[in-house]
Amino acid sequence: MDIHSTVLRQLKNRREGYSLEQPFYIDKDYFKLDMEMIWYRDWLFMGHDCEIPKAGNYFTVQVGDYPVVVVRGRDGLIRAFHNTCRHRGHRVCTQERGASAKLVCPYHQWTYDLDGSLVFARQMGEDFDKSQHGMKPVACESVGGYIFICLADQPMDFAPVRATIEPFMLPHRLKEAKIAHRNTIIEKGNWKLVWENNRECYHCAGNHPELCRTYPEAPSATGVQGAGDDPVITEHWQRCEAANLPSTFTMDQSGQFRVARMPLVQDAESYTMDGKPAVKRKLSDDVTISHIGTMLLFHYPTTWNHMLGDHAISFRVLPISAEETAVTTTWLVHKDAVEGVDYNLHDLTHVWDMTNDQDRAIVEENAFGIRSPAYEPGPYSPDHEGGVMQFVEWYANFMTDRLQGEKAPLSVVA
């Protein structure tokens, strides 16, 4: 039986409320299918508008087999391209980020304008048509200061994403923010394990002492389980919305993306050891009240986010292999906030640096145990792991729909 049929059968027969079967977390063929069915078709969060503020600023990223470059043009627009030269395929931009008036392939100096058009290719003959050899575009959208790309030839409609998340994001003015710090860790576990760990706080009390000082462990804090029935949360929504901050939990019917503004523990305002703001300068001049909690934004499969009164934090998930995942954390502050005056990096980053490392260890031990021949799917807690069940349901539904829509079955990797 081919891998296409095997995975479809397992997803259709999976036991609801239980983790997935072992191959979904460790098998290279299942991973290849994930990449082709989800990662190469869906909208993926890549970075922030403020990372490339000027014409010619760019950053690069690797999504599975696809190298991509994201660049701001002279017209101010942000575009994405397949980062492979139309001559012989060499990467055009080889650095993680940079600035250039034009994009020049270092191999034979083929030169592309910031809109991707080929402007120089020496000694290619009289019949060579430069207009037919521009960099291949990748669908790219900017919303609320966040950059999303889609590798599909025919991308899904981005309008529902924009309509849902943009009103929640705009008050934070992230297009005008600046990057205070960024780091990437490699977690030796499947990307789905990274997400499953993120989607619950059942593990928080025993593993995240720093985070638990300010972030509530209650299942309702995720928004998925009973947030609307929690009087503390509903009162918080009412207070924030009265100050023109969209807050009430909103989730797309597909379950792929959602937003909600959640209160922090007691009087906390930020993710710090004492709960006080990490940055003296507020993130946005448009936010007029304090104690706004955290605006949570989730978009499968690449990002979860926290937007607070003093700073914002984005998390980007990118799979490397069946058992390796890169997680990039970025801290954003007001564009005029000065390090050493308005904030120091230790106070700003300490809680999530610790939490990320703790989660890395959890994911890696989880992956280690799943490799055992004795592993079998286990039950999620209905009281605490509703967010995990929702993620697995989204994954199973998306994969099932797409596998059923495929005409040609994929063969098992040799």
Distance between the termini: 14 Å
Lateral strand order in the biggest sheet: 1-10-9-4-3-2-5
Describe the biggest sheet?
7 strands, antiparallel
Structural class: alpha+beta
Total helices: the number is 9
* Unreliable parts: 407-414
Question: How would you describe what is shown here?
Answer:
This protein has 9 helices and 17 strands. The protein has helices at residues 3-12, 23-26, 28-39, 159-169, 191-198, 204-207, 231-242, 345-370, 386-405; strands at 44-48, 57-63, 66-72, 78-82, 97-99, 103-104, 111-112, 118-120, 137-143, 146-150, 178-187, 250-251, 257-262, 294-299, 303-307, 312-321, 324-333. The chain has a 7-stranded antiparallel beta sheet with strand order 1-10-9-4-3-2-5. The radius of gyration is 22 Å and the shape is globular.
Give a quick rundown of the structure.
With 414 residues, the chain is an alpha+beta fold. It has helices spanning 3-12, 23-26, 28-39, 159-169, 191-198, 204-207, 231-242, 345-370, 386-405; strands at residues 44-48, 57-63, 66-72, 78-82, 97-99, 103-104, 111-112, 118-120, 137-143, 146-150, 178-187, 250-251, 257-262, 294-299, 303-307, 312-321, 324-333. The strands form three sheets. Strands 1-10-9-4-3-2-5 form a seven-stranded antiparallel beta sheet. It has a seven-stranded antiparallel beta sheet with strand order 11-17-16-15-14-13-12, sandwiched between helices. Strands 6-7-8 form a three-stranded antiparallel beta sheet, with no helix packed on it.
